[in-house]
Amino acid sequence: MTPIVRHRPHSPLIAALVRARGWPNAYDLAAFALLIAAAAALAHGAADMREPLSGLSQQPVSLRIANLPEYALRTTLRMFAAMLASLLFTLVVATWAAKSRRAERVIVPALDILQSVPVLGFLSFTVTFFLGLFPGRQLGAECAAVFAIFTSQAWNMTFSFYQSLRTVPRDLDEVSRGFGLSAWQRFWRLDAPFAAPGLVWNMMMSMSGGWFFVVASEAITVGDTTAELPGIGSYLALAIAHKDIAAVAWAVLAMALLIALYDQLLFRPIVAWADKFRVEQTAGQQRPASWVYDMARRTRLLKRALRPLAWLWQRAMLLRLRPRAIAPVPARATATGWADRIWLALTLAVAAWGGWFAFDYGRQTLGLSDVAEAFGGGLATLSRVAILIAIASAIWVPIGVWIGLRPRLAQRVQPLAQFLAAFPANVLFPVAVIAIMRTGANPDLWLSPLMVLGTQWYILFNVIAGASAYPTDLREAATVYRLRSWTWWLRAIVPGVFPYYVTGALTASGGSWNASIVAELVHWGDQRVEAYGLGSYIARATQAGDFHRVVLGVAVMSLFVTLFNRTVWRPLYAYAERRLRLD
């Protein structure tokens, strides 16, 4: 028989040679196009930040729709700069607190205080510093805005990473010690991968939380110092001041498009990548997908270009920054006890000095009536926060579990949840002000929902992260034993997501205190509605440039938040660490 030769347009041999030489394919072209676009946007935004500070007054923020793409780029760069700083802060501070008992005694209370300090409280003291650091340049105002956004992102991520490190399964830690891994190697081989799923979801929440305060970060007014940076936040603030509802709608639309864009290009690929770090003994039934992640895995030239970095990373994993230890070495109880007492004494001395400094600063112009006013407002805000967190927990914990146990549904809900979490309360100011003034409703009651508008999503995102990380083998065991209804909730899923819920509720509580600055004193043009509380007290003092009352308000808020965390959330943290580990 004569063989029939079929002529093919592409010979398998040629295709094999192309693959062997690593020639680029269509996926490479798409990946490089995205990288070039991102580099061009970064270069353009960085060039604008180096402009003279006088340019802000020469080219003020306008409500022209054509300016929105430029404003969106500037705001996005600030958000991601703050996110990078927050991630570095999280990896260092949270790890230090989780691994060192002495550091934990200082860091955890400090985080409780810092998350309660409002963005306006930071701006009151940092704007002048950064403007003086880069005199005559927009970079100073940009740094102040980035730092303000950082303060709305970092604490949530730090608490999440700290909680994950404290609940690493003991058997996995013993295995890592059995292999003789150093502290550096255990961190990157065990701790960081175990914490990755929860950290990724909290990064998304922190990104959205930064949007909530972007108006205060870009349209800065502290006493006589005013700086309006080009961005969606300042655009939205100008639209509210001019009562331009169309401009407000355009700003919200631009924000929604940005959230959808970076969700597809960044967060969804990270979620798909982090899914491989789930702790379970059986394969997951469903895995999150991402077209960007799949595209990156199918590239050829990009993989070859990244091989040197991968080689360096593998070499870094072989470093032994501490001596090898098969088992923990017992410390001498007497020396450790005295060292702990000395450390505690030093900590209390520093805290007492800080308290006296604040007291001495405030007593120059303030009296007991001011202290009584601040404490009375603090009690009112505390009542709102406690009630709102309880209501938000009852609503979002079941919904978060339902979403987290269904990865495909979580993919669809993810961008919507990010948009709702990023939805700034300022957009609802017109509705709130007009409705309250026309109906004569009580602002102390009807302004309260604005406090939890952006912070309730901390609970949802953390519960979704906990349900997504819930091991498949435990779900299958619950099915085998036919756990149903309340038994399934109480015996299976609630213990699994409880550590994540505590993190979300703690950060939601601190965020609600922070949001009270925006929610208890709202403006719509020249109309103003005020609710009685500590948030409105600090907002009035900040607008007037009264730093003594700002310090008093921030100190009282920090005291309330710290006491509440110590009496409620810290015991729940300890319970989750002691009883609800995946051991």
Give an overview in words:
- α17 runs parallel beside α22 (456-468) and α24 (485-519) runs parallel beside α25.
- This protein has helices spanning 12-21, 26-49, 55-58, 68-99, 101-116, 119-133, 138-151, 154-166, 170-178, 183-212, 214-218, 232-241, 245-274, 291-297, 301-317, 333-362, 368-404, 407-422, 429-439, 443-446, 449-452, 456-468, 472-480, 485-519, 534-544, 547-579, and strands at 219-222, 225-228, 521-524, 527-530.
- By secondary structure, the protein is an all-alpha fold.
- The radius of gyration is 26 Å and the shape is globular.
- It has 26 helices and four strands.
- The strands form two sheets. A two-stranded antiparallel ribbon has the order 1-2. A two-stranded antiparallel ribbon has the order 3-4.
Work out the number of β strands: 4
Q: With helices defined by DSSP (H or I, 4 residues minimum), what is the helix count?
A: 26
Order of helices and strands: HHHHHHHHHHHEEHHHHHHHHHHHHHEEHH
- Give the termini distance in whole angstroms: 68 Å
Task: Outline the low-pLDDT stretches.
Answer: 1-10, 323-333
If you compute it from the alpha carbons, what radius of gyration comes out, rounded to the nearest whole angstrom? Answer: 26 Å
Backbone structural class: mainly alpha
Strand content: under 5%
Structural shape: globular
Helical percentage:
over 70%
The order of strands across the largest sheet is 1-2
Averaged pLDDT: 78
Biggest pleated sheet: 2 strands, antiparallel
